[in-house]
Amino acid sequence: MKRRVNQTESKVTSAEKPQRAGRHKDSNVQSRSQGSVWTKVVILALCILTIPFLLQFFTASVDLSRPSDVGLNYTINFYLEPEAGVRVGVWFTVPKHKWKESQGKDLRWYEKALGDGSPVFIYLHGNAGNRAFPPHRIGVAHILSNAGYHVLVLDYRGFGDSTGEPTEAGLTTDTIHLYNWVKARSGNSLVCVWGHSLGTGVSTNTAVKLLEQGKNFDGIILEGAFSNVIGANAGKLPHPFTWFYWRFPYIQYFLFNPLKNNIWNFPTHENLEKIRTPVMILHAEDDPLAPFAVAQELYRIAKNAQNSEKRVKLIPFEASLGYVHNQLYRDSRLPDIIREFVQSLEV
Asked: Is-above-0.90 flag for pTM?
């Protein structure tokens, strides 16, 4: 009897060993898997917490008076005063074919160069950062310069090394002042505006104000455009920067500090109903800040207002390209797209 009991126990014990070993192995695998997940979570959290500080450090460390430090070697930095007590910084890049001639030249030479007949682009960047950063802003300047155009990149009041408190009216005033400065020196050259994100709102606001003064841009490019309303049937969309605030509520204190104390409207949809300037809308289908549906609705509004498919164009970029909100400048087709648009203005 004793032997049978021992044999039975032995069988039970030997049968349980693989199961226990298996459970122990599964437990180790699960533990390692959970540890790996938590490691990734911690790394991601550290990145999220660190990036704003790094961005703030980088933007603060760039000497905006030296555009050559960021690869713009035929560019001059200068300042304008749109209003008393407000000074805004501007980078002026000449067409690439003038790079040798531009070396060592002062602002007077650059001003004279504006009258050489080459088209001129005023580039209005998005919120946060400055005219040097994020780097897609430099990328756009290179594209336009390489295409043979003059490029002026503005830091609105309160951005970069520009002084003053940023308000919607103030940003528009800054842009009008730069436009008038350019027109006074560019003769009969085309003067276009390229607005990105926040800059699309500033661009259309400025275009309407210029129209009221009997002036106008020769062409308008809207990249990553947004609107506070997408249409009567679609209802209201969230503000384009809500995406950041929702996920990283602290981030406004580091990245969006110039804007956080102000209320913004930027009625781009209403502006496009008034504008009669040729418009080209560039938009990535995977844009997480300004959904592609926004671009489609703005295109519909502008096309109906001008009653023309030739004067209003929508250029979509496939989601598979991964350009999201600010990487369109990487597309190899973009220079030809811009040239074709400019050529249509010269007809």
From this structure: no
